[in-house]
Amino acid sequence: MTHVLDPDAPAAANPPRREPPAPYRDVTRSDAAFRAFLHGLPGVDQVGAESRVAVLGTRSIKTTAKAWAIDTAISMVDLTTLEGADTPGRVRSLAAKARRPDPGDPTTPPVAAVCVYGDLAGVAKEALTGTGISVAAVATAFPSGRASRAVKLADVRDAVANGADEIDMVIDRGAFLAGRHLDVFDEIVAVKEACGDAHLKVILETGELVTLDNVRRASWLAMLAGGDFIKTSTGKVSPAATLPVCLVMLEAVRDFRAATGRQVGVKPAGGIRTTKDAIKHLVLVNEVAGPEWLSPDWFRFGASSLLNDLLLQRQKLRTGHYSGPDHVSVD
Amino acid sequence: MTNLFEYAPAPESRSIVDVAPSYGLFVDGEFVDGSGTPFKTVNPATEEVLSEVASATDADVDRAVRAARRAFTRVWGPMRPADRGKYLFRIARLLQERAREFAVLESLDNGKPIRESRDVDVPLAAAHFFYHAGWADKLDWAGLGPGPRPLGVAGQVIPWNFPLLMLAWKVAPALATGNTVVLKPAETTPLTALLFAEVCRQADLPPGVVNIVTGAGDTGRAVVEHEDVDKVAFTGSTEVGRSIARAVAGTRKRLTLELGGKAANIVFDDAPIDQAVEGIVQGVFSNQGHVCCAGSRLLVQESVHDEVIASLQRRIGTLRLGHPLDKNTDIGAINSAEQLARIRELSEVGEAEGANRWQPACELPERGFWFPPTVFTDVSPAHRIARDEVFGPVLSVLTFRTPDEAVAKANNTTYGLSAGIWTEKGSRILAVADRLRAGVVWANTFNQFDPTSPFGGYKQSGYGREGGRHGLAAYLEGAQ
Known about the structure:
Chain A: Pathway: Carbohydrate degradation; 2-deoxy-D-ribose 1-phosphate degradation; D-glyceraldehyde 3-phosphate and acetaldehyde from 2-deoxy-alpha-D-ribose 1-phosphate: step 2/2. By secondary structure, chain A is of the alpha/beta class. Chain A is built from 14 helices and 8 strands.
């Protein structure tokens, strides 16, 4: 099977295919075999998945549990700016906010990472050195992924060279939807290799995959190819992160670890704006994947405005009254 | 691993509801004393006495039936159907307005989690009144014959598992079709019916249209056997249903019975496993398994047995058992000491007969009536836990290899109330559903209810239908 935009790319990439982990070593032996495997995963009944998240959405998280959830959610935020108008100054101010999200309250935990375009990774790195906060960079012709593999890999290497600790790549949705699963697999493997020590988050762009069956297949594909995290969306396509999608991805990482022993993280991104939304996600993590995923090592929120709402709710919980939007910094 | 994310208690406040120290009967629009010895109703989660409730004797029941007859001949029968509909709409709206009150009271008296009473019981009860309110002036077009006429006085006896919802299933269609009602709620759960009586007064429902007589089995017998009752509707155990059928035989009374069940939930190897597991849990553990249509027999295809059981056990491990008024509780209290004893007995028989009992690590509160969610594997169709209705959070797992075997095992029961099919293959759903002898067959879901959908059983699960157009027929002359 050839790549649409660059017929020579597969040959140029490494010919011997990296094997998925046991017990799935042979599922990528051919396109047909891989397709049979992915389509042999149990289906997802959309109505059932939606009613499951609706019930979990009624969990009432109060007082001490809420305080814990808010602080945990803050520590899981990948504070993100992905605009054409981004500047080094904006990234530096975001980095300052990442280190100390609430200047008035030093007990507020720092966020997990700052997420930027690759060319600004260096600026972020400089501002965050020594803080323990990671620099995440989107790469592989984000958000569409429409570029030749050579360009995508160069994009990744450039971001890593600029200091990115984590790479957020996008999968080739066109290839996935056309059934060229091995192309998508090979590309993730190649990107993972280009990452070196950097962690790889694989963006499925579930808004373009549309069905929950596809979300489950793409999740397994990305995990088999070596992704460290699976991530819902770029934030540039609507719908972005939804609870049913997150449910299916959490089931996938849970089942994958049970089968292979390897734990993969999950990152919903885009559209999570309120503390209530974030807590609903944490409840999902807790009751679907399990408490082992309740840490920034295994669960992240890709978000920008969410952080301010978390801070306002945190202030409310500590002081007993709501302040206003002027009590948190604008980004 | 210890849980990092420990949900803090989130109790629903019980201050919204005033539980009186004692209650009378509701007869002819008034609360009156009963002549029998009053009985106590307790909160099954704490064994705290909630209130003392009047007990109706034969004479009290007779007064109630006479009030119902009077209301039928003078007011409710002759009333314009559209006006009857207005009363029902008003009751439905009042149920919604006072939803929280009803939900809290239901959970207090019955032991079911507030999440279920709030999100299932009360909204569905209101929906039944809305639905039937709409029918009141359209009965001529229900396809049940020309000019359908009401039967007269309906004597209704309901169970303790869904006290308010079963009341709605009985009262709403009876009133919409122009009948009046004498209703006996279950002895262990009379309180929401008495609150409903208050709603009837609030809605200015004419006196005598709805009468509520509380009491034990004797009161129920008096209602069923009263000569001036035209129609008997009963939901409850097959044993009591049988004695009611005997009592009504040879009289002019019409009868509908909604009795026990031992539903098969059939999981094929191409099922959406995660949702099937969810459906199994919802099917047998919701309302502590006190559900006549509970999916208490899991029939799972042998090739996915281990996978399904592993998933199921992991999922059951996340169920939260505890105080019914905590908003995060999934499994509440068993309704009574008597029911708890029966569940324990059948579970012990299951073990003695050689089935494998599994229960999650789960702390039970010291006071109150509790039973942990329980799964029996290696169950044979000959075991009692595969045949008898447990009416508790106990699942029996059997396996099958072919669709024919699944159908044969599913139908191999004296009951026939409901069944479930889990498969991603649409043609299989239709083919299997056609061959299942059960009143309701759910596909890729379980325990879903709607007032528009008729509900009722085959074989010893009873006869007659409730809900939908079919349900109206049970309350109309010449329509059955």
